[in-house]
Each structure stands twice: as structure tokens, then as C-alpha cells.
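Researcher: We're teaching a course module on how sequence relates to structure. For the next exercise, students receive a sequence and then see the predicted structure as C-alpha cells, so they can try to spot secondary structure elements on their own. Here is the exercise chain.
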Amino acid sequence: MTFLTWLAAEGTKQIDPGSIGVPKVTDANTALAGILNIAYGGAGILCIIIIVFAGYIYVTSDGNPANIKTAKNAIIGAVTGLIVVIAAFAMTQFVIGRF
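Model: And here is the predicted structure for the students to work with:
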């Protein structure tokens, strides 16, 4: 049996999600909620990374007004983004919970 034949045979097998610890998705709301939760989590982590990086720039600015302004703007933008992500998450959970 060649590798390509084996790969073709293995590629047609179906995996039961329950056998690998993943709950089976039976409705669109659950699938959409899962995808959006991953997106919100990624955006939240990105905001935290930006805040930490901007804090580093602020601390190492050595009094340079341009670096201080850049760091402050980055922190303000990241906190604003984090608030938007949290609000979007809350709205999504409310809407999905209603339908």
C-alpha cells in the first residue's frame, strides 16, 4: 500500500467528536457562540498584550514626549478595544440566550 492510498483511505474516515472530548454541535447558535467566543478571547488577549507593550514603552521612554504620547495613545486604544470586546461579548450572550 502506498502512502497516497493510505492517506486517501484515512481521509475518508469520520471521527466522532465525543471520542476526542469535543461535544457534538447540534444547532447553529451553539456553533456561532463557540466561534465568537474564540474571536472575543483572541481580541481580549491582543488588547492585554498591547497594554503591556505600551506600558513597557512608557516606562522606557526616558522622558521623551513622543514615546510617552505613543504609549498613552496605545493604552487608550487598547482599553477602548477591550471595552468594545466585553460589550460585544455581553450582547452576543444576551441575544443567543434569547433564541
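Model: If you want an answer key for the exercise: The chain has one domain: 26-98. Residues 26-98 form one domain.
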